[in-house]
Design goal:
The protein contains 12 helices and 14 strands. With 442 residues, it is an alpha+beta fold. It folds into 2 domains: 187 residues, no CATH class; 199 residues, Nucleotidyltransferase, domain 5. It binds zinc ion (ZN). Zinc ion (ZN) binds next to loops. Keywords: DNA recombination, DNA-binding, Metal-binding, Transposition, Zinc.
């Protein structure tokens, strides 16, 4: 199976190389702004924009004649071209969302980029792009040391199971990263190594992940101590930052410290989540998670920080591709499936459950169970009830959990009925597989 995958490494540039990196990021920003201004001018005059390719041609003429653009040759020409492509895409996405053919949050009209207010980032898609051992080689920038070993990717490229599509260089806080977008030929097993195994995963606010598997084993992943301590330090640093004078040197220093620490906490969290999701995908054929409305939850300010910290969206994304690579699958319960309100023993349903109630107490059968464990158990049970039908029709099926009336279908969540859709059409409730897994032949 051909998979597009990213390999990301932290860089250790020399001071001269760091200057060149900043220069390239500045060039990408300049090209974006230059292109956006050109597009606006043309739109005012002719009612249309330039395409990415047109902008590139225009730029190639102008850069040679305009003496104020004499510096362009200091940076790789690829960087400008890629910035025009990005702008082209941003404009298209804007139009698509206006027409209502684009899913997700509506992007606004592209804006001008300002230094320090936007992400430093640029991309190459042609030229010398290599990695070996502890170095990467990029067009114009030459060979830069990496902080960690690139051996895994280098080996794949050597033996021909990976092909580099593009390379993006970006900065987070004080650190530069290089990310190789690679097409990888992955061996995906026909079946998972442990067929029939299933696990329900509850994404929590206090505990990172709570899982219950098909043998009833409960695992709680609280996140490393360092991460929790890191969060406390984050609080302290952001308080210190907000107490400094606007525009002062101390504020800049405090902002740098805060950004560095933010990056550190993010790295720790990502690392924990990667380890946890790799473990789950290796151990279980079917992984069931909730479809949390992350954007909606982020709008709730009390939950916002905690939710963002746990990286719910990231967990879902990681599980989605990692289960696919191992011949397993990820099931995403419907957004309205009340996993935390159903009793996992008798199927009785509570009308309401506040977030502060950490123990689930069933009024019908008297079950008292940790709230997260109860929710994870309900999710796991969905795997058993949904598995057969999922395979039978290959489409989206929403069976109700055992002992529950099938959930009512919400407007806008009509299951997508594939060619063999009769079974799917009858079924009513809770399933959605992530798309790229569905495309995987089973
Ligand atoms: Zn009960």
């Amino acid at each position: 199976m051909m998979v597009t995958q990213a390999y990301r490494f932290a860089l250790d540039p020399t001071p001269a190389q760091a200057r060149a990196l900043r220069s390239h990021a500045g060039a990408a920003r300049f090209a974006w702004n230059w292109g956006l201004a050109a597009c606006r001018d043309r739109y005012d005059a002719e009612g249309r924009w330039w395409s990415g390719a047109e902008l590139h041609r225009l730029w190639n003429q102008v850069k040679k004649t305009d003496p104020t653009l004499g510096w362009w040759g200091e940076n790789s020409k690829c960087v400008y071209q890629e910035a025009f492509r990005d702008l082209d895409r941003a404009l298209r996405e804007f139009v698509r969302s206006r027409k209502g053919t684009r899913k997700g949050r509506r992007p606004g009209f592209p804006r001008f980029k300002k230094r320090d207010r936007c992400r430093d980032s640029f991309r190459f898609c042609t030229g010398a792009m290599r990695c070996s051992g502890r170095t990467v080689t990029l067009p114009r920038l030459g060979t830069i040391a990496t902080h960690d070993s690139t051996r895994k990717l280098a080996r794949r490229i050597e033996n021909g199971t990976a092909r580099i599509l593009s390379v993006t260089v970006s900065r987070t806080a004080h650190r530069w990263y290089v990310s190789f977008t690679v097409q990888v030929d992955r061996h995906v097993p026909e079946r998972h190594a442990r067929p029939g195994s299933a696990v329900g995963v509850d994404l929590g606010v206090t505990t990172l992940l709570t899982t219950v598997d098909n043998h009833g084993a409960v695992t709680e992943i609280a996140g490393p101590k360092a991460l929790r301590a890191g969060l406390r330090k984050l609080q302290r640093l952001s308080k210190a930052h907000s107490r400094t004078q606007h525009g002062s040197a101390n504020r800049a220093k405090a902002a740098g410290r805060l950004a560095r620490h933010h990056a550190r906490v993010t790295n720790m969290r990502t690392d924990t989540l990667h380890k946890a999701t790799t473990h789950l995908a290796a151990r279980y054929e079917t992984v069931v998670v909730e479809d949390l409305n992350v954007t909606g939850m982020l709008a709730n300010r009390r939950l916002a920080r905690a939710v963002a910290d746990q990286g719910f969206g990231a967990v879902r994304r990681m599980l989605s591709y990692k289960t696919g690579w191992r011949g397993g699958r990820l099931l995403v319960a419907d957004r309205w499936f009340p996993s935390s309100k159903i009793c996992s023993a008798c199927g009785g349903r509570k009308p309401s459950l506040s977030l502060s109630e950490r123990t689930f107490r069933c009024d019908a059968c008297g079950l008292a169970l940790d709230r997260d464990v109860n929710a994870a158990t309900n999710l796991r049970d969905l795997a058993a009830s949904g598995a057969e039908r999922q395979n039978a029709c290959g489409g989206d099926v929403r069976p109700g959990p055992a002992g529950q009336p099938p959930a009512k279908q919400e407007p806008g969540t009509t299951p997508r009925v594939d060619q063999t859709g009769t079974a799917a059409a009858q079924a009513t409730a809770v399933w959605r597989t992530d798309t790229h897994i569905r495309s995987h032949p089973r």
